[in-house]
Specification:
The protein is of the alpha/beta class. It is built from 4 helices and 11 strands, in the order βββαβαββαβαββββ.
Length: 161
């Protein structure tokens, strides 16, 4: 199964200046639980926003730079090649950024979204989730608290048959 995982603001904002717009420790914890042990697909800029590769995951990086290489990572130049580089019978996770989400949303089977209940100024946005294509199958509201400045909801969407 191909799963897109993202934290998305009310106005579909994802980030600005290659950085996140919020800090939600429970979202990071959920991301780690869901993606650990799996292949994760991302664009080069998303990869470069990490201080180091994420542990216990196979990184597949999409880059148009012919000379871009990262030790221990698979580098390809298209979303299709990234998916082909993954095992056929395992879940794979697409983790960003905005351009990669746009290229892959038509290929995905499921969306795992953390909807941040706030709008932000951004330079990267998530594609619109079309309710004719995607069915919301579960959601769990999380109120803001001392560690989370914003209310947010964990949402799962599956592609309609």
């Amino acid at each position: 199964m191909i799963v897109i995982i993202a934290a998305v603001a009310e106005n579909n904002a994802l980030g600005k200046n290659n950085d996140l717009l919020w800090h939600l420790p429970n979202d990071f914890k959920r991301f780690k639980e869901i993606t650990t042990g799996h292949h994760i697909i991302m664009g080069r800029k998303t990869f470069e926003s990490f201080p180091k590769p994420l542990p216990n995951r196979t990184h597949i990086i999409i880059s148009r730079q012919k000379d871009f290489l990262k030790q221990g990572c698979v580098v390809v130049d298209t979303i299709e090649k990234a998916i082909e580089a993954c095992p056929k019978n395992e879940d794979i996770f697409i983790i960003g950024g905005g351009e990669i989400y746009k290229q892959s949303i038509s290929l995905a089977d499921q969306l795992d979204i953390t909807r941040v209940h706030q709008s932000f100024e951004a330079d990267v946005y998530f594609p619109e989730i079309d309710s004719k294509i995607w069915e919301l199958t579960s959601e769990s509201f999380q109120p803001k608290d001392e560690k989370h400045l914003f209310d947010y909801t964990f949402q799962t969407f599956v592609r309609r048959k």
